[in-house]
From TrEMBL:
<feature type="region of interest" description="Disordered">
    <location>
        <begin position="610"/>
        <end position="640"/>
    </location>
</feature>
<dbReference type="InterPro" id="IPR036890">
    <property type="entry name" value="HATPase_C_sf"/>
</dbReference>
<keyword id="KW-0808">Transferase</keyword>
<dbReference type="Pfam" id="PF08376">
    <property type="entry name" value="NIT"/>
</dbReference>
<keyword id="KW-0418">Kinase</keyword>
<keyword id="KW-1133">Transmembrane helix</keyword>
<dbReference type="InterPro" id="IPR003594">
    <property type="entry name" value="HATPase_dom"/>
</dbReference>
<feature type="transmembrane region" description="Helical">
    <location>
        <begin position="293"/>
        <end position="316"/>
    </location>
</feature>
<dbReference type="InterPro" id="IPR013587">
    <property type="entry name" value="Nitrate/nitrite_sensing"/>
</dbReference>
<feature type="domain" description="Histidine kinase">
    <location>
        <begin position="504"/>
        <end position="609"/>
    </location>
</feature>
<protein>
    <recommendedName>
        <fullName>histidine kinase</fullName>
        <ecNumber>2.7.13.3</ecNumber>
    </recommendedName>
</protein>
<dbReference type="InterPro" id="IPR005467">
    <property type="entry name" value="His_kinase_dom"/>
</dbReference>
<feature type="transmembrane region" description="Helical">
    <location>
        <begin position="12"/>
        <end position="34"/>
    </location>
</feature>
<feature type="compositionally biased region" description="Basic and acidic residues">
    <location>
        <begin position="623"/>
        <end position="632"/>
    </location>
</feature>
<keyword id="KW-0597">Phosphoprotein</keyword>
<keyword id="KW-0812">Transmembrane</keyword>
<keyword id="KW-0472">Membrane</keyword>
């Protein structure tokens, strides 16, 4: 069976679900908002550890690509070759720096950024092979340029991944600045292709690069905000840039200007400086946005926390108040069930008048007030039912007493007539029949007394002086129909107090009759008595089928604590009478198994009711008080 839970636990559980949901939602909102702030604050860190090293490495690769192109076309002088090897050293330095910083940033980067880092490192691993083919003269100019382009494309891909940020305006401007940086990358590719005397295929690629670069610049300038646009517009509108455009047209036409390398290199340097300035400006923009987001997160977190705390306080107060009201209702219900109604029923059974106070259940909840009123109605109904039951029991008891008194009167008159007939009878057979009729009358008198006992009254039969216990037991056996099967063993010479003789005779007679009824007709019922430490013990033993342990336990409980008489339970009428009589005189009656397989009833009479018989004592006097029988000796019918 599942363990029951208190109403307080269930109310707390009921309130806990929305509260936990609210707290969880608050934590999620705070975490997301704080995450946005931390993401913006980490933008500068990513710029320092990834974008700056990547930009530096791109610049060095652009210079190495140009020097490598000069080596490929076989027009490089010794100084140019030395310059190319020096540039390779600078590239290697930038590559190593990038590798170190990228490893530091790998743990705090997103999966997409880590993928781009791996791609860049893979492309950089090809750099040695590219240089070897150039030095061996195995790589034409276009494949050489494409090999360097692949590395640069990987680095720009990393920059675009790093630029991803939750703040859309900053992300859009970062994307445009990266595109302008890629436009500068296209310009350096133009420089590499225009080294020497480009052929038709080189001019086609040059034309594509020029178109792509101009498109990127035009598109970026249209979408850049004012501060960033001013940096770029100053370059685009400069005479150097306009001169560059004219040179590009000349190269496309097949006439390469002599000052192309110098002019393009100077403009590329200017564009790179503008790129650096724009990147620094974007990095600085992220910090105040991050601070604003963090302040918003703190305000939101504080407001949410206040709301959560207020909700918890209100919910707990309402839950405690409801729990107290339900606890009061529970206490009132338990008081009605365990105290008030049992006391009312007990007083009514004792014939006392009762006055039940009204049941009030304080509370502000309508349902609890309704339940309290319902309990008050139930209490009133139960009291009315108990009163009705008490009146019914009193009426039944009165009927029992009236029937018993009338029967006693008729039986008394019958015994007087039988006594007169016995005195005048001379025929032995007629005298024997009269004795049997007298025995039947005695049994009828005992049943009438049983009705009086059931009604709660006291039978009138009694003796003034003590009566020998042996005679008491013999008198009890004489009131049993099958008295010839009863064997009364000799007993110690002790007497029983006169006022209790009638009840003890009745009690033992009921036990003997049960023993004869529930045992085979050919078996004997033995009655014996002896003095015990706490009184006088009388045992009634039969040799019947016996009772189970459960039945013995149930009957002993009834004998020790006699219940109210139930009209529907008339099969155990004798044991109920025994229990009533035993409780009246503090006599203890116990049933147990017999060694012969039957049942033994042990009657322990308290020591204060038993006395040692003296020579001056006479047999018990005739019945008196309510039993108006004439004084005569107690007749005992024994077996032959």
């Amino acid at each position: 069976m599942a363990r029951s839970r208190t109403i307080r636990v269930k109310i707390v559980g009921l309130l806990l679900v929305p509260l936990v949901s609210m707290v969880t939602l608050w934590v999620i909102i705070v975490a997301v908002t704080a995450g946005e702030s931390l993401e913006l604050r980490s933008y500068k860190e990513r710029w320092t550890n990834l974008r700056l090293p990547a930009s530096k490495l791109i610049s060095e690769l652009q210079r190495e690509r140009l020097s490598s192109a000069s080596l490929v076309v076989d027009r490089a002088t010794a100084d140019e070759q030395a310059a190319a090897y020096t540039q390779r050293a600078r590239t290697d330095t930038a590559r190593e720096r990038f590798r170190q910083l990228s490893e530091l940033s790998r743990g705090s980067s997103t999966p997409a950024v880590r993928t781009e880092i791996d791609t860049v490192l893979t492309q950089l691993a090809h750099l040695e092979g590219i240089r070897g083919e150039i030095d061996a003269g195995l790589s034409p100019i276009l494949p050489t340029i494409e090999a360097y382009n692949a590395i640069s494309d990987a680095l720009f891909g990393l920059q675009r991944s790093v630029a991803l940020i939750d703040d859309i305006p900053i992300y859009e401007q970062s994307r445009l600045v990266i595109n302008l940086g890629y436009a500068k990358e296209l310009l350096t590719r133009e420089q590499a292709i225009a080294v020497g005397d480009p052929g038709e295929e080189e001019r086609k690629l040059f034309t594509q690069l020029v178109g792509n670069r101009r498109f990127l610049i035009d598109q970026a300038l249209a979408e850049l905000d004012a501060p960033l646009r001013e940096i770029q517009v100053g370059i685009i509108t400069s005479p150097a840039y306009q001169r560059l455009r004219i040179m590009e047209e000349q190269i496309i036409a097949g006439h390469a200007p002599a000052d192309w390398p110098t002019a393009s290199d100077a403009l590329a340097t200017t564009i790179q400086e503008a790129q650096n300035s724009a990147s620094i400006l974007l990095s600085e923009r992220a910090e105040p946005v991050a601070d604003a987001v963090l302040v918003r997160a703190l305000v939101l977190a504080g407001t949410g926390l206040v709301v959560v705390v207020v909700s918890i306080v209100i919910s707990l107060r309402m839950g405690n108040r409801l729990s107290r009201e339900l606890g009061t209702l529970r206490q009132a219900a338990l008081e009605v069930a365990e105290s008030r109604l049992p006391q009312v029923v007990r007083k009514l059974r004792q014939g006392e008048e009762v006055e039940v106070p009204a049941l009030t259940v304080p509370g502000r909840t309508a349902e609890i007030q309704d339940v309290g009123k319902a309990f008050a109605t139930v209490q009133q109904t139960a009291v009315e039912a108990a009163v009705g039951e008490a009146k019914l029991r009193a009426g039944v008891g009165q009927v029992f007493r009236n029937l018993a008194r009338r029967s006693q009167t008729l039986l008394h008159r019958q015994r007087i007539q039988l006594d007169g007939m016995q005195r005048t009878a001379t025929d032995p057979q007629a005298l024997d029949d009269l004795f049997r009729l007298d025995h039947l009358t005695t049994r009828m008198r005992r049943h009438a007394e049983g009705l009086i006992i059931l009604s709660g009254a006291v039978p009138g039969r009694g003796w003034r002086k003590p009566v020998p216990l042996h005679d008491v037991v013999r008198g009890a056996s004489a009131e049993v129909e099958d008295y010839t099967r009863v064997s009364v063993s000799p007993m110690p010479d002790h007497s029983l107090a006169g006022p209790v003789v009638g009840d003890v005779i009745h009690l033992i007679a009921e036990l003997i009759e049960n023993a004869t009824v529930f045992s085979p007709p050919h078996t004997a019922v033995t009655v014996r008595g002896e003095l015990a430490a706490h009184g006088f013990a009388i045992e009634v033993e039969d040799r019947g089928l016996g009772l189970s342990e459960e039945e013995l336990a149930d009957l002993n409980e009834r004998l020790a604590n006699p219940p109210e008489f139930d009209l529907a339970d008339s099969d155990r009428l004798g044991l109920f009478v025994v229990a009533r009589l035993a409780a009246r005189h503090d006599i203890r009656v116990t049933l147990r198994g017999s060694p012969y397989g039957g049942t033994t009833a042990i009657v322990l009479i308290p020591g204060e009711l038993v006395s040692e018989r003296t020579s001056s004592e006479e047999e018990s006097d005739a019945p008196q008080e309510h039993d108006p029988e004439p004084a005569r000796r107690m007749r005992v019918v024994t077996s032959d």
